[in-house]
Design goal:
Elements lengths: L22 H17 L9 E4 L6 H10 L3 E6 L5 H6 L6 E5 L2 H4 L9 E10 L2 H13 L5 E7 L17 H12 L17 H18 L6 E9 L3 E8 L5 H5 L15 E3 L6 H9 L4 H4 L7 H10 L12
Parallel strand pairs: 1-2, 1-4, 2-3, 4-5, 6-8
Antiparallel strand pairs: 5-7, 6-7
Bound molecules: S-adenosylmethionine.
Length: 321
């Protein structure tokens, strides 16, 4: 197991925010479901084992069970001292909660099964994450699906001890290289550590690790997700199917979905926070909301992004239990 210091020790994200209340993340979950609906035409997704990190809210578990029919589910949780709380909040008894750090738990899973794995970290790219990717690539069965989400704020590399110090781009680059040695791509410059470019660097790093591992197994991967999104922090999600040829995936119609990316084209979820009345108003203005909208003073790129993803945009109301 990696040195504890490489795993984020600050307050976990579930202690800061109710995961349901993050519109961009919720849109991302729905895009994943839509993609898996396509893949279901050729791959028996409902029989796959879902391995994720449900945290306290299990939002992904509710959704993947309800909308994809998956019942074989494992949730890994590193905060072992609070494990009773995580157990209490499991929405279904068939979810198996395994306490421990992913790097220790992943090798103990039954890798004979078809898997849908989502390692949804709430911290920056690190060597412990590299270890997890390598474990997945060592064991995963062809036809399985792998998604990984990491914090994509380059300022997290401003200081080695995560004390919030932002650092210069040059210093961030040095820290990134030190942390990810030898998996960072060649010919990096401080510009790769800008907020805009950092998701691309994360993709290249993740792809490096995957390709290096899979070469030993003569197994290929087909990238399907290359997404950056923001609720509070900028986050990056990479996803792929482990297959040598893309024919079967093409037959599912997956690549016709405009949020699927097979290459380095980044898909952005960058939504405005809007009220229920604004949502109703915006929806009536489709198509071309931004051109017709007057006096709202919401950035045009956000309005356009809303128009792209309005079908997935969540609305929240208080429910009195
Ligand atoms: C971002 S949340 C997961 C959210 C969930 N996937 C969803 O869609 O709502 C991450 C959870 O996994 C836990 N976690 C983070 N890194 C982990 C690791 N390496 N091993 C085990 N648990 C981890 C955190 O404590 C937190 O509860």
């Amino acid at each position: 197991m990696r040195n504890e210091s490489t795993i984020e020790k600050s307050r976990s994200s579930y202690e800061k925010i109710n995961y349901l209340l993050r519109p961009a993340k919720q849109v991302e979950r729905k895009l994943i479901i839509e993609a898996l609906h396509c893949l279901r035409r050729k791959f028996p997704i409902e029989n796959y084992q879902y391995v994720g990190m449900g945290s306290l809210f299990y939002v992904d578990y509710y959704m993947f069970h309800k909308y994809l029919g998956i019942k074989d589910m494992i949730s890994i949780e590193k905060d072992e001292e609070k494990i009773d709380r995580f157990k209490f909040n499991k929405p279904y008894s068939f979810i198996k909660l395994i306490p421990g750090v992913s790097t220790d738990v992943l090798p103990t899973l039954d890798w004979q099964k078809g898997m849908f794995i989502w390692l949804d970290y709430d911290y920056k790219m690190s060597m412990s994450i590299v270890d997890d990717i390598q474990i997945v690539c060592n064991y995963i069965k062809p036809g399985s699906l792998f998604i990984i989400t990491v914090d994509a704020e380059p300022k997290r590399f401003g200081a080695s001890d995560n004390d919030g110090f932002e650092g210069s781009p040059k210093q961030r680059l040095e820290n990134f290289k030190k942390e990810l040695h030898p998996y960072f791509p060649p010919e990096l410059s401080p510009r790769d550590l800008s907020e805009k470019n950092f998701p691309r660097l994360l993709r290249r790093t993740i792809v490096n690790v995957i390709e290096e591992r899979l070469r030993r197994r003569k197994l290929g991967y087909i990238q399907i997700f290359n997404v950056k999104y923001r609720d509070t922090s900028q986050m990056y999600t990479f996803g792929c199917v482990f297959e040598n040829i893309s024919g079967e995936i093409e037959d599912t119609g997956l690549f016709k979905l405009d949020f699927i990316s097979k290459n380095n084209t980044l898909v952005e979820i960058n939504l405005p926070i809007i009220t229920p009345l604004e949502k109703i108003h915006f929806d009536k203005l489709i198509p071309g909301i931004a051109k017709k909208l007057k006096a709202f003073n919401i950035a045009e790129d956000k309005v356009n992004n809303y128009e792209k993803y309005y079908r997935y945009y969540p609305q929240y109301y208080e429910s009195l239990l």
